[in-house]
Amino acid sequence: MDTQILKLDPPYEYICCNGRTALHIATLIVYETKVNADGEYELETHSHPIVRNFDTPRGSVWNKAELRDCDILCSEDNMQISLKKFRKILSRYPESDENVYEGKGEYINPIWKKDLEDIGIMVTWPVGDDGQEHFKEFVVKLNIKPKGAYKYFCEDCYTDFFFYVEADDLDSLKSQLIHKRDWYYYIFKEHDFAIRFTCDDKRYDQILQEINNTKPEKY
Questions:
Q1: pTM (2 decimals)?
Q2: Beta-carbon neighbour count of residue 175 at 10 Å?
Q3: How far is CA 89 from CA 16, 29, 84, 148, in A?
C-alpha cells in the first residue's frame, strides 16, 4: 500500500461529510493492490480529505470519508452559502431536524445554521431587484405516495426547503409537516417569510390547507 499527500493552495474550501464540517487543506491518496475474483491484480485508489478545524488546527485525516462523498460548502474567502445549498446539505440527512429544539439535533447531524454561523458561514437570503429583503412566500410542492411500510411517504419536489416525512396516518403526516415547517421558522426567525404547501394530488388539498392555516409554534 502506498500513500501520497496532495497539498492544496489557499483559499481553502469548507467541506462537509458524515455530519462534520471543516476546512479542506490537503488530500491523502491511498493506493492499494488487490486481487479480483478472476485472480488478476487491480489497483484501488482512495482519496481522503485532510481537514483543519478548531480541534485540529494542524490538520487531520477523515479516514471514514471519501473525497467524492463530500459536499463543498464555500471558499474561506467567500463564506456564505445559498438557501438552496443549505437545503441540499440537509437532504443528505433526512432526519437531520429531529430534536433540534432540545439541542439534540447535533448528535444526528451538526450541519445546522447556527453551527455554520459559529464557523463564520452565513446562509444568504433572497432579495428583491432593489437589493433589499422583502416578505417572501415560499411555495413548497410536495409529492405524497405510499412507500414500503409507510402509507404516506412525503418529500418536497426540490424546492428552497427540504421536507421528508414517513407517516402511518394523516394525523402523523400533518404534525410532522407542521413541526418541520416551524423548525425553519425558528432557525430563520430573523427573516420575514412564510411557507405554503401544495401538491398535485388533490386528495391532500384539505389537509395541506389545514397545515397552511395553522399558526406556527413559538420556540
A1: 0.78
A2: 14
A3: 8, 25, 9, 25
Which phi and psi angles does 122 have, rounded to 5°? -105, 145
Residue 38 has pLDDT above 80, yes or no: no
Cell of residue 213, nine digits: 392555516
Q: Please name the residue that has the C-alpha cell 469548507.
A: 14
Is residue 178 within 8 A of residue 209, CB to CB? The reply is no
Q: What is the DSSP string of the chain?
A: -EEEEEEPPSSPEEEEETTEEEEEEEEEEEEEEEE-TTS-EEEEEEEEEEEE-SS-TT-EE-TT--GGGPEEEEETTB-EE-HHHHHHHHHTSTTTTTTGGGT-GGGT----HHHHHHHT-EE-----TTS----EEEEEEEEEEEETTEEEEEEESS-SS--EEEESSHHHHHHHHHHHHHHHHHHTTTS-EEEEEEES-GGGHHHHHHHHTSPPPP-
pLDDT band at 112 (very low <50, low <70, confident <90, very high): low
